[in-house]
Amino acid sequence: MEQRQTGERVLISFDYAIKRLLRDKANYEVLEGFLSELLLKNVSVKSIGESESNQESPEDKYNRVDILVEDESGEILLIELQFTQQIDFMQRMLYGVSKAITERMVRGDDYIRVRKVYSINIVYFDLGQGDDYVYHGRTHFMGLHKNDELLLSSAQRDVFERETAGDLYPEYYILKINNFNGLAKDSLDEWVYFFKHNIIRDEFKARGLDRAREALVRDNLTPEEQKFYDYLLHIRSDNLSYFASAKALGKEEGREERVKLAAELEKERKEREKLAEKLERERKERDEREKELERERDEREKERDDLLAEITRLIQHGA
Fold this sequence. Notes:
Layout: H1 14-19, H2 28-39, E1 43-48, E2 66-71, E3 76-82, H3 89-103, E4 117-123, E5 134-137, H4 154-160, E6 171-176, H5 187-197, H6 209-215, H7 223-250, H8 255-318
Parallel strand pairs: 3-4, 4-6
Antiparallel strand pairs: 1-2, 2-3, 5-6
Helix pairs in contact: 2-6, 7-8
């Protein structure tokens, strides 16, 4: 186990922070720093999608978060964070990109208004086969006979400010966090190190990490949120343990036993996710009650101030 240096603190995990602390515009600098380091260009966060409005199932809201980001040229970036074992993740990436495009279009819009999308996926499970920890995918239109790449016409280049046909199509980034060996050799590695360990080392200088050191402290959560966060960490730890056990047992048991075990594990996972959903719903209800009490208190104080003002006016008038 790596020794933590003096002054380094374990911070809130990035995925949880996005759902809570990083929704505050004051903390957008954290997200903008990571994306700028990955894409090698300056970007700014425009909106963070509400989990309830962009998920396919109740438990997804704890495993996925969608963020829309634009750079200075108006490009859309779709960031999807995924944390559970899912064999269909590649298709989910494609679905997310398609959704990002169509949701930005209005019925009757010209297709020229379709904007490029980047899908950035940070995964904490074994996705595909590959030893690297950062993968980049894009579309290329190649000639079957001449092996040349299809370029845009001069008029298209003037309009879209791009060179090839593939430049207009979505690009994908996959960060396989578990493949990272822990040696931060550049600014992007510093971010990946944080994703893996929830620690920002004192010598790290990547853009956005300074703000992350301040914003992602556990003490910034309310006592209720801290309990909920600890519970989600427990769920994640259990999931990793279950999948590791299933993988180990799969080497010894037959296919029928593996399928049965996988079904049992999936059932348990969904039960834990439902409980997490219930806790989240209760937290929101408490927040709403607190807001209502705050509104009632403000109304009472206003009525009191109005009454005092009226009494003062009557006294002065009588004098």
